[in-house]
Amino acid sequence: MQSFVLRLVVVVLLICFQSETFAQQSSNPDGFTKLNIGDAAPDFDLPGVDDKNHKLADYADKKVLMVVFTCNHCPTAQAYEERLNKMVEDYAAKGVAIVGISPNDPKAVRLDELGYSDLGDTLEDMKIRAREAGFKFPYLFDGETQKVSLSYGVLATPHVFIFDAERKLRYKGRIDDSEEGNPKVHDARNAIDALLADKAVPVETTRVFGCSTKWFTKREDHKRYLAKWDKEPVSLSVIDLEKLKAIAANDTDKLRVVNVWATWCGPCLEELPEFVTINRMYRGRKFEMVTVSVDELKDQDKALRVLTKTNVSCRNVLFNSGKRDELFETLDPEWEGGFPYTAIYAPGGKVVFRKQGQIDPTELKQAIADRVGRTFASDKVEISESAPATKPTPGDNFKTGNLVPWCTVAFDSKKRSPEDRAKMIFDLGLKRSAYAWRERHLKEFEREILAYKANGIEYFTFFNWHPSMEPLIRKHGIKPQIWHYMQFKPSGTQEEKVVATAEHLKKMVDKTRELGLKFALYNHGGWTGDPANMVAVVKHIRATQPDSDHVGIVYNFHHGHGDVEDFEARFNVMLPYLYCVNLNGMVEPQIVNEETLENKILTIGEGKYEADMIRTVIASGYAGPIGIIDHRDDLDSEIALRDNMLGLKKLLSQLYGSAE
After folding, report:
1. Superfamily assignment of 397-656 in CATH?
2. pLDDT in tens, 503-546
3. Domain 2-220 is found in CATH 3.40.30.10
4. DSSP code at position 173
5. pTM tops 0.70
């Protein structure tokens, strides 16, 4: 039984947002009461979408009362809306009342938890949903105090409680056994039918599945995420006509929203915050947002300041060819001109929504939610019939022979010699290697170089500089990238930290320039390991130190758990400066133990986020080196590398239909 529950938890975590966890695992606030079979129905007096208050006593004449806790935003709850209406149709004439109650505190729902909906969980939003979905049952709001939901012990949405004529609880749990349709077991209907026939309910309690109740205690979590998102890096790149055409072509499997704006356009600036909200809502789905500034090139910095101040962390580009007709014709031949302008492109490039002038945020969200899907069963984006989309496929950098094995020296449980390590790498079909050392390896530096040469392996990387390598680099004519783990801790303002870090690195910048080597900052936590800060340091070095274009970044998935939720934005900021990307299985940062490495080092394919992260890398067009890692003292490096190669191969096959 325990293993079954564990597997079920894993499945739900894989398909739900971070906080949409298996309901029985959620934490509950003080006052939470578990309602048991035989207990009396707790009283309620709540406002409904009909602008009237509804009380438990209002349904005293009904033989059976079904109270279902549901909500607007949850994909599982939305999947059952039509079935609830059908139950009302089937049972109303038989003396059965069905009452819906929304248990959620609207201020406790994060924006990324709204990705399956166009509406939040406020009473006003509930009125819209009830009207549009044609609810045939009362829909009540308990989000202000949540006292009723606490008294019923609501675990999730939906959660059903069925009471007999005496208002004693006779059934609690799910509606049926399949939110995706075609259920085999109709638990709620079976309970109602039994009560109407004066029989015992066959199954009195079932587990619930759906979205965890958003208790008022989660308000701080909501605020914390807003503050975190406001710190996301913002960038603006200049594009030409060909790249603008690529944006309109939408050669991806995602729904793409494009907003055209300018700093001199008042309505544009007024609606920008709405696009920030919309992007944060849907970017966890098959969705992406692009803003296109039509400012003049001389105003690029001004446009970037506006985007930064407004926290627009999606893909931002500037296009100004001086020919407005090129812009109009490329993005949408039906665009009559004027700004702002917003369009939705289906995969393949068909415009499925367009708006000249300011958007109605609710209208745009509805158009997005209808197309990305409101339930797990509809979690897809339709491809344009007129222009079938093709999606980017893995480049040669993902082929086995081009992968870079990493952390195979210090973390190999077999503690191989340089010669044995080189043979292992060769036998695995790999053609280059990244080298990280410890004090015990100092005397082996040259043996490693010679062993690689003997096996035709490129000495790709030397991690953390040691002066004894300089003569060996000169002697053997190798050109490894130098990866630098910055333990330097700058202080002061952001600008002061950037300047101080750049100055701290100057000697290594000069040394690697002299040797003709690439020099890459290595993300390893802290201020100096944050992607946005690394980019700022690299840009400052390139701008202030002569001939320093050899300075860039190496990005490691296993040191980037804090980046998983906004990886696409962070990756795109780093993209122009990347020299290597090292892969790893990825999970939520909250369950990673940095000391024991529990959940930190996982085989590719065993995590929750690496598939989307790798898809982002491929979609970006990044063609640089890709690394796979060992990084566990208890593992034979050969086994660790082989498992990662196999895991990557399977993942690419799942994503793209072929392993390489």
Report:
1. Divalent-metal-dependent TIM barrel enzymes (3.20.20.150)
2. 999 999 999 999 999 999 999 989 999 999 999 999 999 999 99
3. yes
4. E
5. no
